[in-house]
Amino acid sequence: MQQQMHQTPRVPQRGALRILALTTVLGAWGAGAHAQSSVTIYGSVDQYINHMRSSSGASMTTLEDGALLRSRLGFRGQEDLGGGLYAKFQLEMGINADNGTQADSTRGFDRQSWVGLGGGWGEVRLGRQNTVIFGRGDYIDFTSRTLGSMVNNFGVPSRFDNDISYTSPRVAGFLFEAHYAMAETGAPARQAIYQLGLDYLNGPYRVGYAGLYARAPQSAAYTDAVRYDNLYANYDYGKGKVQLAFVRSNNSTAGSAGNNTGTVLGNVGGLVAGTNADVRRFYRVWQLSADYRVTPQLRVGALWGRIQDGSDSGRGASGGAVAAYYDLSKRTMLYAVAEQLKNDRNAGFRLAASGGMKPNFTSADDVNGRTIKGVQLGVLHRF
Asked: What is the pTM of this model?
C-alpha cells in the first residue's frame, strides 16, 4: 500500500509575522468595536381577529394588525464615544402584517427616523420621533393606551417630522422632556409644534404631565392653537397598578365616517391649517384603570372612561373594557379584549387600536350617536 504524504505550504518568516500582526490588530479592533458599539434588528408582529357591532345593526368580523403593538421592523444602535458621551440612532417602519404591505407607502421609516447624542447631562435627538404623549402610554392605563382604552379612542398625537428633542436624566425622581418640531421649508415658523413632559417617580408612585401646543398661521380664519394636555397618576401595589388619567384637548373633528373620526392636527404629522371651527371645541377625558397579575403568565385588567364635550353640544362618549393577557414566553403573548363605546347623541367616536383598524365603520349612520361593541382575540410576537 502506498502512503500519501501531505505537506503544509511554508510561509516565509517575514510574511508570517505580518499576517500574525494584522490578525492581532483586527482582532483587537473587532473586540473594541463590539464592546463600544451595537446595532440591533428588532420588531413585532401583532395580529388579531376583531368582531364589532354597532347599535345601528351593522357588524363586521375582520383580521386586523396592531392591537397592542403595530407590526414593525426596526434598527437601533448605540456607540460609546468615550468620556460618558454616546451616539445613537433608530429607524422604524410600520408593517401591515395581514397583507405584507407598508403601513405608510410614502415613507421608508414612517414610525421613527432619528439620530442623537447623549451623556450624563441627558439626550438630544434629531429627526422624526414619537411624541412625548405617545411615549407615556404605559403610564396611562393597563392597555398601554391601545386597544380598549377610552383615551386612545379619543385619539393621540403620535409622531412628527423635523423634531428636536431633549430628555434629561432622572434627578431626585424627576425627568424632563421637551420637543420642538419645525415646519417644512416654506411654512411659517409659528406653525412649529411644541411639546413638554414632566415625570416624577417615587417608589410605587408615579405622577406626570405630557402636553402639546400647535399654532395656526396668523392670517388663518381660526387662529386658536391645538392643545393636548395629559395628566396621569398611578400606583404600583405589587400585583398590578391602579392608574388615573385626565386629558384636555381640542384635537377632534368630523371625518367622512362620523362627527369625531378626524383630527384638527394630524396624529402622525402635519400642521394646523387654521380652517376648522372645531378647534374651538374642547373635550375633557377622564379614565380609571386597574390590572392584576393572577399568575406570572396571566394578567387581567379593566377600565372605564368618559369623554366630556365642553361645548355641551352632545358630542361626548363613555365606555370601558376588560382584557386578559397570557404570556406563552418572553416574546409571545395571547390576548383577549371586550370593549364598549357609547356615543352621545351627536358624537361619532370609534374603537381604535395601536394601529388604525382597517376596515372600520365607514358610514356615519353606524357611528354618530351609536353604541359600538367589540371583542378581539389575538397574538403578539416580539423579536
From this structure: 0.88
